[in-house]
């Protein structure tokens, strides 16, 4: 059974003092794991071991993201089992080694972690694009993840600046949702949205809605969302009342975009879903000199969906995007702190760790927008 936000927040407040006062961490803990048979199970795993150069965080919230959901449904060959999954998190520090103390952290700090960690040495890292690292390591993939009672933060993660303190005015729920929002922020750094722009977003999930919110903050003239699932349409319209919705099951997307934009087309198109045909249609509905973000990755080799002549003659700019950086997460948290973004409103359900499978089913069967896990 899911808990209400207030119930879970009460649990967190009542237990945080107990965990912060711990001086040792040992034994076993419950975690959601891809096991050796590549099955997703709740099982006991070793607790993180306190070291002089690491930190240990008691997880207050971990969020189920699109990648987690696809792994739940279809598996993921990129994960080497056994591995604790989950990479969107917020928690409280219960162990601080001397190295982390020297970096300004202390027991009791509320933190979130930028989960994609660069090596710090390659050209991408040296130029500030750590998400493009040649040897990228990610929580829930190469590092043990956040779907657990506790999570270790190794020295290298601290050294790379991927541990972010949560401001007092920002809730743990919002902090746990900052990483996917920062991925959308990363995509929009390429798009240069202007006040006169028409923006089309394919997909009305959490990412699609955050893209709409950021486009609105940038002053976009009209924001059009393309979505076939009526329950998601209703949720998106409730979250962002001024969006225009096109349902391809009932309308011709190309013709509707042409009509809404007075024949200009979309200055910006964002494919916030994993549907290959959207990549092709994005080029058709784009205005001349339009900018396209292929945000949602697609299965297979990804070939055969782009039209070189459309790109050439319309002078289209097409951008990819992968993950985000600690700096962009800090920007999103600042937006929350300043009241520009309300991430917590997107939380549909909160589940205990033992009921995490119900959270995945809520996404599959009830179009849940954002599901949090409270270990």
TrEMBL record:
<keyword id="KW-0862">Zinc</keyword>
<keyword id="KW-0560">Oxidoreductase</keyword>
<protein>
    <submittedName>
        <fullName>Alcohol dehydrogenase catalytic domain-containing protein</fullName>
    </submittedName>
</protein>
<dbReference type="InterPro" id="IPR013154">
    <property type="entry name" value="ADH-like_N"/>
</dbReference>
<dbReference type="Pfam" id="PF08240">
    <property type="entry name" value="ADH_N"/>
</dbReference>
<dbReference type="InterPro" id="IPR013149">
    <property type="entry name" value="ADH-like_C"/>
</dbReference>
<dbReference type="InterPro" id="IPR002328">
    <property type="entry name" value="ADH_Zn_CS"/>
</dbReference>
<feature type="domain" description="Enoyl reductase (ER)">
    <location>
        <begin position="37"/>
        <end position="373"/>
    </location>
</feature>
<dbReference type="Pfam" id="PF00107">
    <property type="entry name" value="ADH_zinc_N"/>
</dbReference>
<dbReference type="InterPro" id="IPR036291">
    <property type="entry name" value="NAD(P)-bd_dom_sf"/>
</dbReference>
<dbReference type="InterPro" id="IPR050129">
    <property type="entry name" value="Zn_alcohol_dh"/>
</dbReference>
<keyword id="KW-0479">Metal-binding</keyword>
<dbReference type="InterPro" id="IPR011032">
    <property type="entry name" value="GroES-like_sf"/>
</dbReference>
<dbReference type="InterPro" id="IPR020843">
    <property type="entry name" value="ER"/>
</dbReference>
<comment type="similarity">
    <text>Belongs to the zinc-containing alcohol dehydrogenase family.</text>
</comment>
């Amino acid at each position: 059974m899911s808990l209400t936000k207030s119930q879970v927040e009460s649990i967190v407040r009542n237990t945080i003092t107990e965990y912060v006062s711990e001086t040792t961490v040992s034994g076993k803990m419950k975690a959601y794991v891809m096991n050796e048979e590549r099955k997703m199970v709740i099982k006991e795993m070793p607790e993180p071991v306190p070291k002089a150069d690491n930190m240990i965080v008691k997880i207050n919230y971990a969020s189920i993201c699109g990648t987690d959901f696809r792994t739940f449904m279809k598996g993921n060959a990129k994960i080497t089992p056994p591995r604790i999954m989950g990479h969107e998190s917020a928690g409280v520090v219960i162990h601080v080694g001397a190295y982390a103390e020297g970096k300004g952290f202390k027991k009791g700090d509320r933190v979130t972690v930028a989960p994609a960690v660069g090596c710090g040495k390659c050209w991408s890292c040296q130029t500030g694009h750590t998400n493009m690292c040649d040897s990228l390591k990610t929580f829930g993939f190469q590092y043990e993840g956040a779907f657990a009672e506790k999570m270790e933060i190794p020295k290298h993660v601290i050294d790379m600046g991927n541990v972010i303190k949560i401001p007092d005015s920002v809730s743990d729920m919002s902090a746990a949702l900052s990483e996917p929002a920062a991925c959308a922020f990363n995509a929009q750094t390429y798009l240069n949205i202007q006040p006169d722009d028409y923006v089309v977003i394919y997909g009305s999930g959490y990412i699609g809605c955050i893209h709409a919110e950021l486009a609105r903050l940038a002053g976009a003239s009209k924001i059009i969302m393309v979505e076939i699932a009526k329950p998601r349409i209703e949720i998106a319209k409730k979250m962002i009342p001024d969006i225009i919705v096109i349902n391809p099951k009932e309308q011709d997307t190309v013709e509707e975009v042409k009509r809404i934009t007075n024949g200009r087309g979309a200055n910006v198109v964002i494919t916030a879903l994993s549907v290959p045909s959207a990549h092709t249609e994005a080029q058709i509905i784009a205005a001349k000199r339009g900018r396209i973000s292929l945000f949602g990755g697609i299965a297979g080799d990804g070939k055969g969906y782009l039209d070189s002549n459309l790109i050439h003659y319309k002078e289209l700019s097409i951008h990819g995007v992968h993950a985000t950086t600690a700096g962009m997460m800090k920007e999103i948290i600042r937006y929350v702190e300043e009241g520009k973004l309300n991430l917590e409103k997107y939380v549909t359900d909160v589940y205990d760790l033992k009921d995490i499978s119900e959270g995945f089913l809520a996404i599959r069967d009830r179009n849940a927008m954002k599901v949090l896990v409270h270990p």
